[in-house]
């Protein structure tokens, strides 16, 4: 470093030049290191942000790693209640079947319970409906011949009690046919290529404005009713079936943070029950849907362009309707 009091001698000047060059090299090196450290930190933050984004379930908006998708057809006759592990599903679909009764589909990915049930049969429209998940594993008790052939030829990873009996068992304490239960791990082990959870059109976020305060809402089929009441204490919608509280075998009240009442067409299926009309629930198309969240109802428009597409829910102002993070229930209502 140069002296501030006197000019250096020639020998000292050479030393100063060497020191100056060394200092400059060190400063340059430190600058490069600083840039690299900053870049590494930025990359680390970006990677962390990416991990956070990737670890959020597209089905619930809650933390969860991408995982195989399992759809289970669940009995909802009165003798099938209480259900086992419906509370563990990411999404619960409620749909109309023969005789105007209702049936459920539980979609599992974020967590896989030890057992699920009771399990019942699949329908023709389940192929189109479940293709939104790409190629999920489908667990069901069976189906009539024509429907079973359609399901087996579809891209779904279909494993029924008929084709994969080791994945199921009978609970002798229940009355058949409402006593068939599933071992999810066994079915997923037999479906190594089942698709992982990915975007199906749901969006999650803060409650928007414009909702209508709502305490109760129900959907009625000719022989079944599914109701929801808002619980300010639990901050979720509590479910009921046929006017009675819906509970699990563990005693937990069933219900979700978001409930979607999706109005759809239900023409007769090409595969009919011998005694009752079997509906085909059309999940491709466009129509009205009421979204319940945070004690309010929001009117939206749902749209799905084809069987492999997402289902979007759009508000009147053109923005996507955000769901409240947590379990989502979708109830099909005939329009």
Overall geometric form: globular
Number of strands: 20
How many helices? The count is 4
Portion in beta strands: 25-35%
Main sheet summary: 11 strands, mixed
What value does the average pLDDT take?
A: 87
Termini separation: 86 Å
| Global structural class | alpha+beta
In helices, the fraction of residues equals 10-25%
Low-confidence stretches: 1-42, 44-53
Q: What's the order of the H and E elements? A: HEEEHEHEEEHEEEEEEEEEEEEE
Radius of gyration using CA atoms only: 29 Å
What does this structure look like?
The chain has helices at residues 10-54, 125-130, 145-153, 184-189; strands at residues 70-74, 91-96, 102-108, 137-140, 157-160, 168-170, 180-182, 203-204, 212-213, 216-221, 224-231, 236-241, 244-245, 255-256, 258-264, 285-293, 296-304, 312-314, 322-323, 328-334. Helix content is 20%, strand content 29%. Strands 1, 2, 3, 4, 5, 9, 15, 16, 17, 18 and 20 form an eleven-stranded mixed sheet that branches. The protein is globular and about 50 Å long. It is built from four helices and 20 strands. The longest helix has 45 residues, at 10-54. The chain has 335 residues and is of the alpha+beta class.
Q: In brief, what are we looking at here?
A:
The protein is α+β, with helices and mostly antiparallel strands. It has helices spanning about 10-55, 125-130, 145-155, 185-190; strands at about 70-75, 90-95, 100-110, 135-140, 155-160, 170, 180, 205, 210-215, 215-220, 225-230, 235-240, 245, 255, 260-265, 285-295, 295-305, 310-315, 320-325, 330-335. It contains 4 helices and 20 strands.
């Amino acid at each position: 470093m140069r002296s501030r009091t006197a000019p250096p001698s020639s020998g000292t000047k050479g030393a100063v030049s060497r020191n100056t060059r060394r200092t400059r090299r060190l400063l340059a090196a430190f600058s490069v290191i600083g840039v690299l450290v900053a870049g590494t930190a930025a990359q680390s933050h970006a990677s962390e942000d990416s991990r956070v984004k990737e670890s959020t379930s597209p089905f619930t908006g809650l933390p969860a790693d991408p995982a195989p998708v399992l759809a289970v057809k669940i009995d909802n006759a009165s003798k099938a209640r209480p259900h086992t592990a419906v509370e563990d599903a990411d999404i619960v679909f409620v749909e109309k079947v023969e005789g105007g009764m209702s049936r459920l589909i539980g979609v599992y990915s974020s967590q896989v319970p030890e057992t699920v049930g009771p399990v019942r049969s699949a329908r023709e429209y389940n192929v189109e409906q479940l293709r939104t998940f790409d190629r999920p594993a489908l667990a069901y008790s069976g189906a009539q011949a024509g429907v079973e052939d359609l399901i087996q030829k579809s891209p779904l990873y279909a494993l029924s009690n008929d084709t994969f009996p080791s994945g199921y068992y009978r609970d002798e304490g229940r009355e058949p046919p409402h006593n068939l239960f599933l071992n999810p791990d066994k079915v997923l082990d037999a479906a190594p290529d089942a698709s992982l959870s990915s975007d199906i059109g749901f969006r999650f976020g803060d409650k928007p404005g414009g909702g209508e305060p709502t305490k109760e809402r129900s959907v009625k089929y000719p022989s079944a009713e599914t109701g929801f009441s808002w619980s300010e204490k639990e901050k979720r919608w509590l479910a009921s079936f046929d006017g009675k509280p819906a509970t699990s075998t563990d005693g937990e009240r069933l219900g979700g943070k978001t409930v979607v009442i999706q109005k759809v067409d239900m023409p007769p299926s090409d595969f009919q029950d011998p005694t009752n009309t079997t509906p085909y629930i059309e999940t491709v198309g466009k129509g009205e849907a009421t979204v319940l969240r945070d004690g309010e109802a929001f009117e939206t428009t749902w749209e799905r362009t084809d069987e492999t597409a997402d289902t979007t829910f759009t508000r009147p102002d053109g923005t996507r309707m955000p769901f409240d993070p947590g379990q989502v229930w979708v109830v099909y209502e005939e329009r």
